[in-house]
Amino acid sequence: MAVQKMKKICLCAGKQDRKAVLEMLQRMGAVEIRREDPAGDGLNQMDVSEALAGLEEKIGMIGQALQILLRLEPEKRSLFAALEGKRLPAGDLYKKGEACRERICGCAEKILELAGEMEALEVENGRIGERIRELEPWKTLEFPLYDPGTKNFVVILGSLSQMSEEQQIRQLLEEGFEENGEDVCRHEGELEISGREQGRAYLEISGREQGNVYLEISDREQGNVYLEISDREQGNVYLEIFGRERGRTYLGILCGRDEESSVRELLGSRGFVPAPGGGQGETPAGEIQRLKAASRRNRDRILGCRQEIGKMQGRREELERTEDYFRVRAQKYRVLGELWQSRTVFFLEGYVPEGAAEKVKARILERFAAQVEIRDPEAGEQAPVLLKNGRIAESVQGVLESFGLPRRGETDPTAVMWLFYVFFFGMMLADGAYGFLVASSCGILLLRFRGMPEAWRRSVKLFFWCGISTLIWGVLFGSYFGDALDVAAEAFWGVRLPEGESLLSAVWFAPIQ
């Protein structure tokens, strides 16, 4: 068939009717609108940037909401879902979208709000989990981790690598303080609360025969806890090993403020990592308990958000329909932004197939006060190319489009191309069994999925005809999966055929022989 002849349509109508005219042309799907330069002065174009941005925002919002619904509850689709095509809504898409757009946009906003809350809570739970892992080695400590010291004394808490045994740490401190005549207290045991009196807690280093060391809470101010140390000999540095976990040795050192820099310098040379700070004046065990409770509340809220979103799964189809509605409107506004208009009228130019030109003109004049001109394109005008082929030849149209479409006035080679493509495809494969499988499979798909996208439908139809051609050539050449039938007959049933013969002889001739 030849390339479809195109007509140019020029339209002038009242400015108040421009949206209605475009909506009608969109529904008809027969006109390709072109942007032309203005033919006179006093014409301008409508600024649609703000309206278009609002529509794009709504399209993006609904698209994100659909992705969230799909992620939380994947749609159960068959293996051939891509062949089913998009479900077309019954009735007028534009009217249905107009009626429910505000409600559906509110639904999409709610989904995004709940999903954002879920994401924030999951991030917070991640931080809580990390904080709990930091505090786990210190959970036996009975005073807060942050700044546990007084004016004259300080407790240094932190960890060293697993290779740092207790004796090595003591030896390091002894060597560092030996020149100053200072002593490191050697003892076994743990820091314990030995008593409470008037709101003070006395922490005792057990295992010392003479002179226990007491740390007492002396004051609280702006969330800080101040500890006092009593019964301590001047110049001593006390060491306590709290435990070993994940390749680290966790320890505490009690020393004077004057000795703090020296102790930290000595420890820093061995990869000392200070204990995590923060907290709210709580012991590590108390903070861990509070954080776990907060994590449980967050998980409960995340579950609640999932359930609320789950209740909106039934609106997925409405969301898809409304998204399509906004896409149609966005396309309309893009065209509106390209139309030239005066104070009272607007102008539109485009191309329409010759067979539909008079129908389009009649529909416009029937509904609107307009002037419509239908004429042949002038020389040099780039009219769109539309091919019209029969049901058989159209299957190879996609192959032609991949190489390039013919120009206006040229011959459409689709039918001839289909004949040679199918003919030589079958000749090159030439296998009856393979051709039967391909043809039957494609035929079933065409019958089963009548709503598949046009490009898919043409490709499947092309392979259907290629399968038929392969089957015919296979029968002519006597090939059915090669010589698999003869080999199987001999191997399993002991059927030995004379040289040059086959179970299924070639109708024409056997190329191999």
TrEMBL record:
GO terms for cellular component: proton-transporting V-type ATPase, V0 domain; vacuolar proton-transporting V-type ATPase complex. Coiled coil: none annotated. InterPro entries: V-ATPase_116kDa_su (IPR002490). The keyword Transport applies. It is found in: Membrane. GO terms for molecular function: ATPase binding; proton-transporting ATPase activity, rotational mechanism. One of its GO terms (biological process) is vacuolar acidification. Keywords: Ion transport, Membrane, Transmembrane, Transmembrane helix, Transport. It is a multi-pass membrane protein. The chain crosses the membrane at residues 418-447, 459-481. Belongs to the V-ATPase 116 kDa subunit family. PANTHER family: V-TYPE PROTON ATPASE SUBUNIT A (PTHR11629:SF63), VACUOLAR PROTON ATPASES (PTHR11629). This is V-type ATP synthase subunit I.
